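User: structure tokens for this one?
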Amino acid sequence: MSTTFKELLTARNKAYNKMKQVNSVVCYLHDALEQAKSTGLQYNIDHARNRYTSYFDEYFYNSCNDYNEVNDSVINHLMCIDSRLSKLLGDS
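Assistant:
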């Protein structure tokens, strides 16, 4: 079954919103890391750095990849439509 353009746009919007949420958490964890650095306590710094890097590695790249995949699908769908219209109109 073929995916409709509306479904692709909905999927892209969901992926974008997920990416924004992940980015918000990454910003929060970065701020926590900066606060830990200001305390000068190595345990706090290590703990904050581990939280930041593990979340970043696990979620940030995945959400970016998901968004890029869906965005590519939207672009491919539009190119297909453009190709079909060109053929119908005789614009080779």
